[in-house]
Design a protein that fits this description.
Elements (H helix, E strand, L loop, with lengths): L7 H20 L4 H22 L4 H18 L4 H4 L6 H7 L5 H24 L1
Helix pairs in contact: 1-2, 2-3, 2-6, 3-6
Length: 126
């Protein structure tokens, strides 16, 4: 089975989601949209990026994305940014975060559930 591919639809989704995430980061300094909705969208963005190039079952990709998101979140319990000498980097803080929140884990989980629902609905329309 061929796993490496290029899926134009997922690439377009990824670009749109990236632009939306960038807009949220620029416009909102704090609050629900920036923190919770942004975390919800970021797993969908990561999923779309990976699905652009890797053709595996949605459930396997969702599990991968959730493990990555949870892994990064739990790394925030450590001094990773200090260890990497990136504690003053806005970009590093934006990508890796700097504070652990259980609410982020919940947002990631809801984002992944949304992906599975969307994929199931897409499959039923085919």
């Amino acid at each position: 089975m061929k796993y490496l591919t290029f899926d134009r639809s997922y690439a377009i989704y990824a670009i749109i989601l990236f632009l939306l995430e960038a807009w949220i980061a620029i416009i909102f300094d704090s609050g629900f949209i920036r923190h919770t909705f942004g975390d919800f969208l970021v797993v969908i963005l990561l999923y779309s990026i990976l699905k652009t190039f890797i053709d595996i079952k949605p459930l396997y990709m969702v599990i991968t994305v959730l493990l990555i998101a949870f892994g990064i979140e739990f790394l925030q319990l450590t001094n990773l940014l200090e260890y990497l000498n990136l504690e003053h980097s806005y970009t590093a803080k934006l990508i890796l975060g700097n504070t652990f929140h259980v609410s982020d884990l919940i947002a990631y989980t809801f984002g992944c559930i949304t992906i599975l629902i969307a994929e199931q609905n897409q499959k039923s329309y085919e």
